[in-house]
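Reviewer 2 asked us to include a model.

Predict the structure of this chain.
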Amino acid sequence: MFDAIALFVTIVEAGSLTAAAERLDLPAATVTRRLQALEHELGCRLLHRSARRLQPTAEGLQYYEQCRPLVHALTQATRSLDANLRRIAGHVRVLAPVNLASGPLAAAWAGFLQAHPEVSLELHLSNSVQDLVGSGADLAIRVGAQSDSLLTQKRLGEIGLHLVAAPAYLARRGTPAHARELAGHDTIVATPLVAWPLRDPASGEETTVRPDARLRVDEMRLAVAAAETGLGVLLCPTTYTRDAIARGSLVPVLEGWAPGHRTLYAVWSQQRYLPARVRALVEHLHAFIQADPLLAATH
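Predicted model (structure tokens):
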């Protein structure tokens, strides 16, 4: 109905059906047909039309004067809202895992804010899955595909996992050659990786190890630091150990046994329109992750 009313207001202000059609970029026949449909719905004639002139009827003039300010106000409000939604500015609230947000993605947040000075960012970090819809957050970063049909998800990259230990620990306790030998080793467990799904690269046999941890923590960097001191074997993302492996303070254990990659997603509610500032953050995170060989893995 609003489109028809806006069309009528445009016809009156343009002064002719032809001029209105050009202003609206519509065929003249379409403008005429829509005007006739509006008149039929209202039950009165709105315009006197002739080959030379177009003039509102008394009812048409009254209707125009009542509708014109409403049409202009709503059009302006729509343009302002559209401009605001397209502008990369405003507040973005994100839910993310502690280990991921403060580790591999730490530099991504600063880079995004530097690139978009009119955006403010609020990060709520937890290693537990938080309620995206109920929290009112704009976006969540999660590991693993989401089964919730109310969420839209975009793949950002993948996180590799492997087992590591300090050379000094392995020299003291021996290097395990099979998953079952982990039962005789000290282990470090970092949530959420409390169960270790392992696969024998020779036979393909799969087994899940649930370590009786000597140390259990919910912060991955602390777990890596503990492994470097020689406290035991640790399953963790490859992104956390690249520097330690490069300097020789950690080495891979049971290579080929570790579970595959875990897919990283940005998710948001299907019930919410995604403003430009949130879309910009999703694209920034995607580009940041794809630039990191350990996160962009496609195995």
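Residues 58-86 form the longest helix (29 residues). The radius of gyration is 31 Å. We have added this to the supplementary material.
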